[in-house]
Write a structure and sequence with these properties.
This protein is an alpha/beta fold. It has two domains: 70 residues, Winged helix-like DNA-binding domain superfamily/Winged helix DNA-binding domain (Arc Repressor Mutant, subunit A, Orthogonal Bundle); 117 residues, 3-Layer(aba) Sandwich (Rossmann fold). 49% of the residues lie in helices and 15% in strands. The protein is built from nine helices and eight strands. A six-stranded parallel beta sheet has the order 5-4-3-6-7-8. Strands 1-2 form a two-stranded antiparallel sheet.
Length: 220
């Protein structure tokens, strides 16, 4: 599955759960397409790929979609996550209420600084020496990295060695899994906030330039 397809799946899942909570029983491909910004034809193609059936008159059954997407995206099993690096970004993520609404459970934090360790915290924070046992005992497969850039590679090493197979990386360096010789290749999503902002500034600047050109041409 490519990234664009997986992203659409998560959008479908969020949308159908919302529709179910609002009392909807059926939904059509044009409704789904409009909501996530794709064509109805692409919705039907995606659902056909997943062997999800519907019809032109009746659309798709919401309960069926909820059940199937929960299985496809793993929501039918506990989605427990840990975080390594409990500084400002780590603390902000630990306090983020949106995880619970998505049935994602941030169950523990880990930090090398003794002053950060607090096992009585609502989300307990342990020292790095506890990482391996915690991951093993709780069958954790996904983790978040929020450490300084110079520490990110060694932290990833430790996480992979404990059995982590999915990583969301907020450190300001790009991490890759290819150099790790694990039984199951890791999936790493790099979130570079600075790079995203630069991209956003570029898009805004490009739109402003295009708008100026259109206005200049209209005056001629």
């Amino acid at each position: 599955m490519n990234k664009e397809f997986i992203l659409r799946l998560t959008k479908y899942k969020r949308l159908i759960h919302k529709l179910k909570s609002l009392g909807f029983e059926r939904v059509f491909s044009n409704n789904l397409g409009d909501a996530i910004g794709v064509t109805p034809a692409l919705v039907r193609k995606d659902f056909s790929t997943l062997h999800l059936s519907g019809n032109k008159r009746g659309g798709y059954n919401i309960d069926m979609l909820v059940e199937e997407f929960d299985v496809i995206l793993g929501r039918n099993s506990p989605q427990n996550v840990i975080i390594v690096g409990c500084g400002r970004i780590g603390q902000a993520l630990m306090q983020y209420p949106g995880f619970a609404s998505d049935d994602i459970h941030l169950v523990a934090g880990f930090d090398k600084a003794p002053d950060s360790v607090n096992i009585d915290n609502p989300i307990p924070i342990f020292g790095m020496d506890k990482l391996e046992n915690f991951v093993s005992e709780n069958n954790i497969k996904v983790g978040i990295i929020t450490v300084p850039g110079e520490e990110a590679s060694s932290v990833l090493d430790k996480m992979v060695d404990t059995g982590i197979r999915g990583v969301l990386n907020f450190a300001p360096v790009e991490l890759k899994c290819q150099k790790y010789d694990c039984d199951c290749k890791c999936v790493i999503h790099n979130v570079n906030i600075g790079l995203e902002l630069e991209h956003l500034f570029y898009q805004v600047s490009t739109q402003d330039t295009d708008f100026s050109i259109v206005n200049d041409n209209s005056k001629k």
